[in-house]
């Protein structure tokens, strides 16, 4: 099932994240918390993992957690950006195989006991077909662990800007996974950050590559309208503004 409104191309995503490469780790507060929580979930479902794949590894925020838990596994890392892959690989205990490319349309190998990913699945155009692809890559009883985002993610930006991504619900992901996996974890969380102004929110998104959620350039008038609406709707009592991430965590075992 394709998501017609999910029109962001991999080349655009790659360009935005490449531009944010030097600022990402300093500003990706929510993503770091998500990686830590995903690692905690995995730690409760550990089993012998020989061959492992991380999809959308970025600069290695989740990679570091995985390496600490599974130091002797045979790792394959994937990301759109070769520069990010090179950084993530430095966090590995042994030299991993690196695969550059859009995970939906790139050959990633087979025979995986673990496939893991954080904050990447929301970019995929056809989640159901991607789940089918992953199922074909995994061993029986293999673990699929990923985080994505749920409806209401970055809702402040979407309402103030009048546009933004839509996100499948946990129930929808469960329906996609059910023919291939036994679902053991499906849980949502809210991570609320505060900023001094709506412009700081925009800078935060730019520094973490998330500006790929909007195509095209903003005029000065559009930006002024955005700032006004954001302040009106999402100001706190101490004159800050909020930005809410809504991660969704899923862990499933291959049937």
Descriptive tags:
biotin biosynthesis, seven-stranded mixed β-sheet, 255 residues, 38% helix, Rossmann fold, disordered N terminus, two-stranded antiparallel ribbon, alpha/beta
* Main CATH class of the domain at 10-152 and 165-190 and 246-254: Alpha Beta
Low-confidence parts, pLDDT < 50 over ≥5 residues? 1-5
Number of helices, where a helix is a run of at least 4 consecutive DSSP H or I residues? 10
Order of helices and strands: HHHEHEHEEHEHHEEHHEE
Span between termini: 21 Å
How many strands?
9
CATH topology (level 3) name of the domain at 10-152 and 165-190 and 246-254: Rossmann fold
Helix % is: 25-40%
Secondary-structure blueprint:
Blueprint: H1 10-19, H2 24-27, H3 29-43, E1 51-55, H4 61-69, E2 74-79, H5 82-89, E3 97-100, E4 112-118, H6 127-137, E5 138-149, H7 155-161, H8 170-177, E6 181-188, E7 191-195, H9 198-207, H10 220-234, E8 241-245, E9 247-254
Parallel strand pairs: 1-2, 1-4, 2-3, 4-5
Antiparallel strand pairs: 5-9, 6-9, 7-8
Could you characterize what this model shows?
One of its GO terms (molecular function) is carboxyl-O-methyltransferase activity. Pathway: Cofactor biosynthesis; biotin biosynthesis. Pfam families: Methyltransf_23. It catalyses: malonyl-[ACP] + S-adenosyl-L-methionine = malonyl-[ACP] methyl ester + S-adenosyl-L-homocysteine. The protein is α/β, with parallel strands linked by helices and 255 residues long. It has a domain at 10-152 and 165-190 and 246-254: Vaccinia Virus protein VP39 (Rossmann fold). It contains 10 helices and 9 strands. The chain has helices spanning 10-19, 24-27, 29-43, 61-69, 82-89, 127-137, 155-161, 170-177, 198-207, 220-234, and strands at residues 51-55, 74-79, 97-100, 112-118, 138-149, 181-188, 191-195, 241-245, 247-254. Helix 4 (61-69) links the parallel strand 1 and strand 2 (74-79). The protein is globular and about 55 Å long. Mean pLDDT is 89; it is low at 1-5.
């Amino acid at each position: 099932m394709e998501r017609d409104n999910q029109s962001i191309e991999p080349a655009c995503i790659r360009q935005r994240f490449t531009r944010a490469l030097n600022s990402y780790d300093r500003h990706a507060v929510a993503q770091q918390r998500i990686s830590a929580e995903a690692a905690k979930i995995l730690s409760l479902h550990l089993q012998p993992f020989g061959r492992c794949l991380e999809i959308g590894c970025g600069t290695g925020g989740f990679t570091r957690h995985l390496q600490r838990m599974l130091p002797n596994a045979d790792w394959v890392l994937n990301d759109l950006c070769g520069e990010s892959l090179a950084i993530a690989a430095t966090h590995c205990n042994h030299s991993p195989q690196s695969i550059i490319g859009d995970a939906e349309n790139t050959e990633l190998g087979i025979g995986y006991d673990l496939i893991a990913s954080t904050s990447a699945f929301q970019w995929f155009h056809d989640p159901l077909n991607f789940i089918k692809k992953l199922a074909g890559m995994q061993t029986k009883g293999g673990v699929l662990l990923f985080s994505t985002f749920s409806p209401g993610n970055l809702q402040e930006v979407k309402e103030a800007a009048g546009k933004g991504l839509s996100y499948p619900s946990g129930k929808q992901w469960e329906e996609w996974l059910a023919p291939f996996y036994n679902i053991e974890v499906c849980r949502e969380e809210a991570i609320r950050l505060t900023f001094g102004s709506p412009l700081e929110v925009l800078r935060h998104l730019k520094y973490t590559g998330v500006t790929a959620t909007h195509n095209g350039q903003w005029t000065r008038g559009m930006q002024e309208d955005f700032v006004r609406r954001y302040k009106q709707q999402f100001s706190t009592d101490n004159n800050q503004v909020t930005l809410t991430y809504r991660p969704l965590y899923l862990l499933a075992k291959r049937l």
